[in-house]
Every structure is written in structure tokens, then in C-alpha cells.
Amino acid sequence: MKKDKILDFDSLKIDKRESMVDLVVNKIKDLLLSKQLLPGDKLPSEFDLAKIFSISRGPIREAMKILSAFGIIEIRSGDGTYISKTDKKIQFDPLLFSLIVNYKNFKELFELRELLEVSIVKLLIKNAGAKGFKEIEKALLEMKERLLSSPNRDYKAMAKYDIDFHIVLGKATCNTLVEKIYNFTLDLFKDSVESTYKNPDNAVKAITLHENIYNALIEKNIDNAVKAVEKSMEQWKNYYK
């Protein structure tokens, strides 16, 4: 087992103008770009990172979530957090990081997800093979079954199968980068998706909306797929409000 990486503490000076999450993400980025961190290196524990940065563990946890979503780190249960090993060059876009970290603005995040959802169905129709469409069908059937039979109307469980359906859509695009960004956006929406299922009546409506998306996809009708996604997003937005 590798020992924790010894970081250059002097390079981790806090800039109070940055949010704490931005700070951690950008410092890890800088350490990677300067080769102080390399693929396969083990990071200090969440507790130790909090001490290094002199901040609470909350921002550390959120930063790790962001880095994990982009495939930059790998969190191994019971072992620790490692810089991912990959043959692909990791590209950092500071503007993209900044936009995604500032996800508390619901309007902006909604618009980001809407843009992604429309792009996902277009890319999926272009790239997905028979296996991809079969997996989408399977995810839809499982979602329908779980939403209609969830014990005690468990809204968290119901939201999980809704999100799982979208995760399969992302995978079917056959574009790893798009899939990772999409999955991260879905993760940010987890709480708000759960809130829509607190009203049991929304389950049946959600099934219909997702069936419309699926039907347009298997017909490879981009116009209908985009309309189905836009209708689903608008309904979801109204539920959340």
C-alpha cells in the first residue's frame, strides 16, 4: 500500500477570495500540473487535508466529489483516495470548474442540465448501438416497476431509479467525457429529484415523460426526442418549484 503523498505545504496558501471548494479543487489541479501529484499517488485523508488547508471537512468532501466526477481521483472504500491512473491526458478548464462548482444557483444549473439533456439525446441517437438501446429499455422497465411498487412510497428509492435511467442514457452516448460531466450534473440534482417524488402522484407522470423520451430514441427521431426532453425538464422544474 502506498504511503500518503507528502504535499508542499507552502504551495497551499489560502486565497480568501476563493470559495473553499474552489480552493481545494484548484490546489489539487496545481499539484497535478506541477507533477507534485502523479497518477497512482495516494492523497492524505479527508481529515488531514482539512488540517492542511485549515478549513472544515465539508469543502474537502465537496471538492473530492467534483474531482471524482471528472475521473481525476479514485475513492477506494476502506483504503483511501488516489489520483486516477489513465492513459488519457487530463485536461483542466478553469472556467468549466468555476461554473460547475457554483452550482447553488438553481436557475443556472437547471439551464446547464437542460442543455446537457438535449445534447445527450442527440449524441445518443448518433452513437448508440443495439446494446445501448437495450440497456435503456431495461432501465426504463426497472424504473417503471420500482416507481409503481416502491414500499411506503420511498421517495429516495424512487429518485434513484429515475437518475439511474439517465445514467444509462449518458453511457449510451459512447462519449466518456460527456458521460462524466452529465453524471456529475445528475449527482448535483439528486436532492431536488428526490423532492419531486415526495408527491406520490408524480411517479406516474414521470413514467410517462420517460417513456416519451425512450420512444423517440428508439425511433431515432431527434426532433421528438428533444421535445420529450424539454417537456420532461419543464415538468420537473414545475414540480420542484
Keywords:
66% helix; 2 domains; single chain; Arc Repressor Mutant, subunit A; two-stranded antiparallel ribbon; 241 residues; 11 helices; Four Helix Bundle (Hemerythrin (Met), subunit A)
Outline:
The protein has 241 residues and is mainly alpha-helical. It has helices at residues 20-33, 46-53, 57-69, 94-101, 106-127, 130-149, 155-172, 176-188, 190-196, 201-218, 222-240; strands at residues 73-76, 80-83.
Rg calculated over all Cα atoms: 20 Å
The CATH level-2 architecture of the largest domain is identified as Up-down Bundle
**Helix/strand structural class:** mainly alpha
Main sheet specs: 2 strands, antiparallel
CATH class value of the largest domain? Mainly Alpha
Number of helices: 11
Looking at this structure, what is the CATH superfamily of the largest domain? GntR ligand-binding domain-like
Number of beta-strand segments: 2
Helix content: 55-70%
What would you call the shape? globular
Task: Provide the spatial order of strands within the biggest beta sheet.
Answer: 1-2
Strand content: under 5%
In angstroms, what separates the terminal alpha carbons? 48 Å
Helix-strand topology string: HHHEEHHHHHHHH
Give the averaged pLDDT, no decimals.
83
CATH topology of the largest domain: Four Helix Bundle (Hemerythrin (Met), subunit A)
> What is the count of distinct domains?
2
Parts with pLDDT < 50 across at least 5 consecutive residues: 87-92
